[in-house]
Amino acid sequence: MDSLNRIFRALLDNTNTDFVRYLHDTILWDSRLIAILGARGVGKTTLLLQHIKLYDNVDDTLFVTADDLYFATHTLYDLALEFYQNGGKKLYIDEIHKYNGWSTEIKNIYDQIPGLKIVYTGSSILDLEKGGADLSRRKLEYHLNGLSFREFLSIDRGIELPVHSLETILSNKIEFPFDKARPLALFKEYLQYGFYPFYNDSGYYIRLNSVLNQTLENDIPNFAQLNVSTANKLKKLLYIIAQSVPFKPNFSKLSRDLDVSRNTIPDLIFYLEKAGVLNQLRDDTRGIKLLGKVDKIYLNNTNLAYAISNSAPEIGNIRETVFFSLMRTTQEVTTSAVADFSIGKYTFEVGGKNKGQKQIAGVKDSFIVKDDIEYGYKNILPLWAFGLTY
């Protein structure tokens, strides 16, 4: 355990706390069992280390990565028990999805070592694992999304803005230091490379494609128990969808293109959604599974569109993708019968600066969300403003 502690202290020394993600202050950190899930690369590891550095006593705290060589000859339970018996109080486990049988051991630690608090991070597809222990009654689960435009501004330019509620944005009461910067140019940068916290690393798109390949080739197949042949279909399916985002699903055509059963297609799309690669836009009906019918499929964020595409992505698709990506973090977004999106009683049509009112004429509580405008007026709202909601 000494080697684990040395690694932990070294990681802590190299952790910067100048900027902490939006999710941090919503987490009930004193709970006995906390799960922080999210797609690869969104910053889960950094969030844990920042919290420890800012708020915990490192003498009774331990941070470990679940694929450490230590676990080749030790179990998570063994570590937790030894740590607790030596005065440990808080155990943080990163990338828990890399440890076989993790859920059963976490359950045993929770039940048998009640004095120990556990926080773990994992892939957003953890609940695809079959045969594991049910932790739903024991854990508090949180989901970390990629950077918002507000967070990107803070990290990249030092522009500090408050979180704006949807109602504040709809009323066009938006704070921005126009005397110091102009939002449109910055928003275009965000669309291309501002979603993942590692955007400043060299070779960003190469790294992003590597993250995507790891997700498609390892994460999803392992958790969904896919054979090699079916796993290879994921890449082809993603490529097909990426060429025509937003994609209107035609399961019969996809089954022919991929040479798989029609019934397999919804499962593959669901896996891609769980892994943070796609977002499915559903209608507001509710079925047995409390999920409406899928109307359109989008990439999870616009950075993926620029990384995957061989040419510049279609701007209309980029606008819809970023609106959906940003708003689904804090709101339930569904399809609209007359426009692009609905959020509760509100209707939104997304477009460029020349977008007219014809499509939503006579629709109560409806708005035109325009790219390429700095200021809103009445029911016309700037697209960039929706990046300030978390």
Q: What does it look like?
A:
- The strands form 3 sheets. This protein has a 5-stranded parallel β-sheet. A 5-stranded mixed β-sheet has the order 8-9-10-11-12. Strands 6-7 form a two-stranded antiparallel ribbon.
- The longest helix is centred in the middle third of the chain and has 21 residues, at 204-224.
- It has 390 residues and is of the alpha/beta class.
- It contains 13 helices and 12 strands.
Molecular shape: globular
* Proportion of helical residues: 25-40%
Structural class: alpha/beta
E-strand count: 12
Low-confidence stretches: none
Q: What's the N-to-C terminus distance?
A: 38 Å
Labels describing this entry:
390 residues, alpha/beta, Rossmann fold, 5-stranded mixed β-sheet, 13 helices
